[in-house]
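Need Amidinotransferase's 3D structure for a figure. Predict it.
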Amino acid sequence: MTRLSVQAPKSVVMIRPHHFTPNPMTAKDNSFQSNDEKRAAEAISRAAFDEVTEMAEGLAAAGVTVHVFEDETATRPDSVFPNNWFSTHSGGHVAIYPMFSASRQSERRPDIIEMLKNDYRVQDVIDYSGLEKDGFYLEGTGAMVLDHIGRVAYAVRSNRTNEVALERFCTHFNFEPMVFDAVDRHGKSIYHTNVLMCIGTEFALLGMQMIPDEKRRREIVARLEETGRKVIDLSIEQIENFAGNAIELDGKDGRVVVLSARAHAALDRQQIEAIEQSATLLPFDVSTIELAGGSVRCMLAGIHLSRREIPATQLLYAAERAV
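Structure prediction for Amidinotransferase:
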């Protein structure tokens, strides 16, 4: 398999929560959320902390550089999902995004942006968060699934994806917007694009059945196939088990596709073989964090920036700072 790919970052940012809980303020439009009535809040919080720790260590062992930041507050229940409030792009560009839920807007952290400036070559930071005042939202690489090779931003219409904000992002970052509707088995709009779609270097995962417009569905598949990718169709049940919420990263032995243990178990043998033609599957148990309606992809903010110096270790813990 090819070693280098603009699609697969070598580094990621993770947030380790100290007081994790599913966020009641985001449950209304996130049908993937659920509750655990059998465990006490403290047990859920500890399990989430451990899941992030084990995943960070596993990624580092695979050769991915992992920057782990702590969140010791009890006021940011979704902070474990940093990919929603910032993204990074080749050429030294960083974007900061407007968040739909007021409970999530404080997740934006200057210390993470400063780390990127210090450790990577950052040319500019474009901050769209002021659009929140106008009611325009675009929740990062949750709202968009980006094809860094074909320069297409795929985006499902939802409360969390405003087309004005999307157009601004695409103009600044040189992507073509491709907006479409997608619904769950009950006809409810999908809240984030990255729960039904994952784009790797040589493959793409897509919940085709969840796109009701047949013409638009064919257009999306055609655009993905134009770049030489094999499009792997995921069933609604597989999407409900977070099989679409995966990300391709670059490790020490080649590309890896990181996904949850639950998602991996939902894939059939033919799908696994198709993915493993170009990358190695790397599953982690994040079943507690999945209670919040997101999975592995949501937990990882990929760093598509040039590193200033090679790190001495792949696992880098940052001290908590006042934010």
